[in-house]
Each structure stands twice: as structure tokens, then as C-alpha cells.
Amino acid sequence: MWLTAPFALGVVVISAHADSLQIVGYSGHLGEWELTATVTEEGSSAERRYSGALLMKHVGLCTQEGPEEKSGNISIRMPSSSSQLEATLRVDGVECSYRGIRADFYSGTMNCTGREAVPLKLWVQ
Q1: CATH number of 98's domain
Q2: What is the pLDDT of residue 6?
Q3: Residue 69 belongs to what domain range?
Q4: In Å, what is the CA distance from 12 to each residue of 15, 122, 123?
Q5: Among 107, 109, 106, 125, which residue's Cα sits nearest to residue 117?
Q6: 9 in helix, strand or coil?
Q7: Model confidence over 20-38: pLDDT tens digits?
Q8: Residue 56: beta bridge partners?
């Protein structure tokens, strides 16, 4: 299972249009999992919220019979008055939380239920 070992996840968030974002990222020590998602804004408030389906595809060298795929969802919270981003990822019944602080990118730790915390970096454009 992809969440059994610690992994890092780098995600690029690119604005598709005003009410949705396209998310692209890679997880694993060698970037062996590709993550893609389109999230849609949920209402309007001081805290921007987005959510949508995500797909993780194993693209590492160990793939023998085609890439393994896992689906789930992601929820993102971006308070407009701070440089923080929070996210919840759910894949195959495992829930992970994330809080990142922005410098050149969002950097923080992802905590998954019953698993060791791992670094997570997010880029937002």
C-alpha cells in the first residue's frame, strides 16, 4: 500500500479559472506516485475552500503490469488573511491532514492516521 512507508509529496496548484484549481503533484521518496486533482471553490468567505476528486497513479520503475491507481478526494482551506494552507486528503480509507506555511512554496508536515508524519511541499500559482 502506498501509505505504509513515509513519503514526501510535492504538489503544484495552477489556477484553471476563478472558481477551480488544477492540482498536480508527486509523492514518495523518488516521486513514484503522481497526484492529479481538479478542485472547485466552495462558496465565498474570508477562508477560501476548495474540494474535489483526486487520482494517484504509481509511475515508479517497479510498475510491472501497468500503473496502479488509487482514487480519493482532497479538501483545501486557504485563509485569506494568512500565509497558511491546510488540506485533508483521503485515499483508500486513509485520512491525512496537512498545514503548510508559505515562503516561496507551502512547506509543512502531512499527518496520516496511524502513520508517521511526512514532509509535504505545495506550490500555488
Answers
A1: 2.40.128
A2: 43
A3: 9-124
A4: 10, 6, 5
A5: 109
A6: strand
A7: 888 777 776 666 777 788 8
A8: 35, 70
Phi-psi region of 43 (alpha: psi -120 to 50; beta: other; left: phi over 0): left
pLDDT digits (tens, 9 = 90+) for 81-122: 788 989 999 988 899 998 988 887 777 777 888 887 777 777
Count of domains observed in the chain:
1
Residues 111, 117, 118, 121: is their CA dihedral positive or negative? positive
Q: Give the CA count within 13 Å in the CB-facing half-sphere of 102.
A: 12
Instruction: Please check whether residue 49 lies inside any domain of the structure.
Output: yes
Backbone CA torsion sign across 76, 17, 8, 53: positive
